[in-house]
Amino acid sequence: MAYDERLARFRQAHLNPFNKAPEQGERPDGGPPTPAQQPDPSPGDLEGTLDLGLAEDHFSRPVGLILASDVQQLRQAIEECKRAILALPEHSERQKDAVVRLIHLRLKLQELKDPGEDEPNIRVVLEHRFYKEKSKSVKQMCDKCSTIIWGLIQTWYTCTGCYYRCHSKCLPLVSKPCVRAKVSHQAEYQLSICPESGLDSQDYRCAECRAPVSLRGVPSEARQCDYTGLYYCSSCHWNDLAVVPARAIHNWDFEPRKVSRCSMRYLALMVSRPVLKLREINPLLFNYVEELVEIRKLRQDILLMKPYFITCKEAMEARLLLQLQDRQHFVENDEMYSLQDLIDIEAGRLSCSLTEIHTLFAKHIKLDCERCQAKGFVCELCKEGDVLFPFDSHTSVCTDCSAVFHRDCYYDNSTTCPKCARLSLRKQSLFQDSGTEADP
Predict the structure, then answer these.
(1) Which of 10, 33, 409, 414 could bond 381 through an S-S bridge, CB–CB 3.0 to 4.6 Å?
(2) Whole-angstrom distance, CA of residue 144 vs CA of residue 141
(3) Rounded CA gap, 301 and 295, in Å?
(4) In this predicted model, what pLDDT tens digit does every residue of 144-155 receive, in sequence order?
(5) 157 near 133, Cβ under 8 Å?
């Protein structure tokens, strides 16, 4: 009966006399009814009774505790708010309000537990060079604890080398060295397709953090990295997708596969590094991929154009070679490829862009610059036709003296090269003259 009396007082205090006439049993002066006149609550009134009780017992106290600085009190308020959410009707407005209050309480608790803003701007951990982030609105995930980084109230850091992100409180727990250090010391790919050795070889533990894992998901799901073939826990393997170099080189397969966080960062740093020598790794690839043959011919022509540019003042002032600044290895050799080169070749982007650059370079040498035009060749075999350049498609170059001829003329007279014969006669005459001067 004590509960009924308190409920009746609450209803009377919130009763509007202008909207509803006094019910039977109520006193005219507005006082509460006698216990004998109090009707028992019906089953239909349970929802309203529950809402009133929760609004009085649970909502008021967490609101007051949001400003509290005691962690224990905030935890107690969070537990009470959880119980209130479970007791309230689903999808009701009161339950939505309770969820919002619970979020505020948890943010306040995290703010009290998180280190303050007096953290240093630079932290060095296992070759990681962490910088304190200033952004407050960007939503990120911590690579260590796999939870959300609340930039508004939490301090977080990013490694400038491998872009590893984590909370300030997670920095002492980082156990994996910076991937950029591995890229600098040992820049090479794993070229075996998913070299799986079995979960038993890892002692049923994560390959990175050594947490227990199993294929059944108890205590943690074992996820395989398609690049290394090893198994990782869900905290170290987020099912990130990346192109695997071994599949691209051996099968010309560029479908993204699931890789671990560590492998994903390593592949992201290595994607533009020219470390793949396709002629040695898979020479048969040029027989099946026509685009590779086209790219190789364009690269060879660019290498033949390079001597013209480095000896031409106008080309140096125009910085024509900077057209390939994103692919510096294209002006150094025609053998090394990066994974990004192969991805762009398969997508058709590299062929188009390299053809445009090739056309621009040829236009400068053959049409725009008189100095470069003067460095052309005349076919000494037929002594006819236009000025020839070594990168023209209808020419052939002597491997000994680098003289340029028409392709048909060179193959018809392949036994002799006029320039080589002339240089040989000149050497013999110089040798004879030096021998005559040496005699008494």
Answers:
(1) 409
(2) 9
(3) 10
(4) 887 888 777 777
(5) yes
